[in-house]
Design a protein that fits this description.
Elements: E1 2-7, E2 23-27, E3 32-36, E4 42-46, E5 58-63
Antiparallel strand pairs: 1-2, 1-5, 2-3, 3-4
Length: 64
Amino acid sequence: MIVQIKSVVDGELPDNLTIGKKYESTRVDSERMKLSCDDGMIICTNIKKSGYLGNGGEWEVISE
């Protein structure tokens, strides 16, 4: 699926993620996905409450 950052909450975005960039990801289950960051690091994160996007930021699913 294709995702992008929807919101960053109460925190800073890691250096290896970019606002406005579309990322290819793989859904793990109804709430989580795996994706490769800008530096190649692979993360598994919650789509609606991602710890990588500050204190619970959200990813937007562009397409499944």
